[in-house]
Write a structure and sequence with these properties.
The longest helix has 32 residues. The chain starts with a helix and ends with a helix. It contains 10 helices and no strands. Helices cover 74% and strands 0% of the residues. Helix 6 crosses helix 7 and helix 8 packs antiparallel against helix 9.
Length: 222
């Protein structure tokens, strides 16, 4: 290992040790806001990634800075969770006889609109990771295997998806693409069988919208 590489590794190790001093407090902040330890750990991981990209020489009070970033990201997760609940709730439940017929139609229409939003604002890798994690609670390790990437990169894909959903970028989606993904999503939510949905989300031929990126490709999208 060259002296330069050794120096970079040493600096990163030192920063990791320094960040670990704050980790427990950041986890507590995120957990108080979100109410989920798993989501709180995701937020702290995202804070660490951002901290590595920050010019730390310009941060006068690291503890306050990290707490602020953690709080902001946690609030984003809560907003995303609220949107997710409003969008996906009821789909996986069996039809209830006391529901008016139009209630099921309205729920399905809401899902179709949500799927369109996902397709318009997220790249294929982000969309696959976000849907499988947020709607179907797949473990990061399993999603990583499906996308041929790492669990750490999968967490980044989900984090970027949340940011892009909030930021409002938009690409054109054809009716055929929207119909395929909406149909597969609704079927998976109702039956619990995600095989067809996973195949469509992780399709690398582009027929599902666009190709799911590899780990390198995901970094280049940032």
């Amino acid at each position: 290992m060259s002296a330069t590489c050794a120096g970079v590794t040493s600096d990163l190790d030192a920063e990791a040790r320094s960040f670990d001093h704050h980790r427990r407090r950041l986890l507590a902040i995120a957990y108080r806001v979100i109410g989920s330890r798993t989501e709180a750990e995701d937020v702290v991981q995202e804070v660490w990634m951002r901290w590595q990209r920050t010019d730390r020489r310009r941060v006068a009070a690291p503890q306050a800075y990290l707490a602020t970033v953690t709080t902001r990201l946690s609030l984003n997760v809560v907003r995303s969770a609220r949107w997710r609940h409003e969008t996906f709730s009821g789909l996986a439940e069996p039809d209830r006889t006391h529901d008016a017929p139009e209630a099921g139609v309205e729920r399905e229409e809401a899902v179709h609109e949500a799927v369109r939003l996902l397709m318009e604002r997220l790249g294929a890798g982000e969309r696959a990771a976000y849907v499988l994690r947020a709607a179907f609670e797949y473990p990061y390790e399993q999603i990583a295997g499906l996308l041929h990437t790492t669990p750490a990169n999968t967490r980044q894909l989900v984090s970027r998806a949340r940011r892009h959903l909030a930021r409002g970028r938009c690409v054109t989606v054809t009716s055929a693409q929207h119909r395929r993904l909406s149909t597969a999503f609704v079927a998976a939510a109702r039956t619990g069988n995600t095989t067809c949905l996973v195949r469509l989300l992780t399709d690398t031929t582009g027929t599902g919208g666009d190709a799911a990126p590899t780990e390198r490709g995901a970094r280049e999208q940032e």
